[in-house]
Amino acid sequence: MERYGGGRIAIVEYDPAWPAMFEDERAVIRRTLGALVVNIEPIGSTAVEGLPSKPIIDLLVTVRSLAEARTFCVAPLEALGYTYMPEYESWLPEELFFRKRMPAPWTHHVHVVEPSHARRQEWLLFRDYLRAHADVARAYAELKKTLAETCGEDIACYRTGKNAFVQSVVAKARAEIAQR
């Protein structure tokens, strides 16, 4: 079992401060990483207004080159309080993953990817579909609450339990785009 570092997985009600927390962190990361960054976008449940979530701000940092990022991003992000998690590369290929405020409870996740990274598009499609479809966002919230209760501290159980829902939403988002 992969344990969630903050104890039991907790889904909290939406916090209207989350967008400002994202913007503050985006500014700091952009200033720190400079020209390495192509774009920084909010992803995850905290990026969807009204959606209950684990209280962790997810930032999608798009860079020109992952090799360049591996060389020049790790130390500056660690200086900002992030911990690089290389052990996650086995299930997050072609991505650098960081957590802020270790040990738990962590407050931010940073996902560093190239523009062509397949999951980058999926994260954005999923976020945008939830933003546009309140009924789907509510269903996702209920699923997350149920999984948090069922999975306890097992974060792999929680992630796996969401996969089918996420993939079905991404497929709907792609179909909606194709119909335009």
Core attributes:
180 residues; alpha+beta; Beta Polymerase, domain 2; five-stranded mixed sheet; 6 helices; globular
Task: Describe what is shown at a glance.
By secondary structure, the chain is α+β, with helices and mostly antiparallel strands.
3D structure, described in words:
With 180 residues, the chain is an alpha+beta fold. The protein has one domain: 2-Layer Sandwich (Beta Polymerase, domain 2), CATH 3.30.460. The protein is built from six helices and five strands, in the order αββααβββααα. The chain has helices at 18-33, 66-72, 74-79, 118-132, 134-151, 155-178; strands at residues 37-43, 57-63, 82-84, 96-100, 108-113. Strands 1-2-5-4-3 form a five-stranded mixed beta sheet, with helices on both faces. Strand 4 and strand 5 (108-113) form a beta hairpin. Helix 4 crosses helix 5. It is globular and about 40 Å long. The N and C termini lie far apart (43 Å). The model has no long low-confidence stretch (mean pLDDT 94).
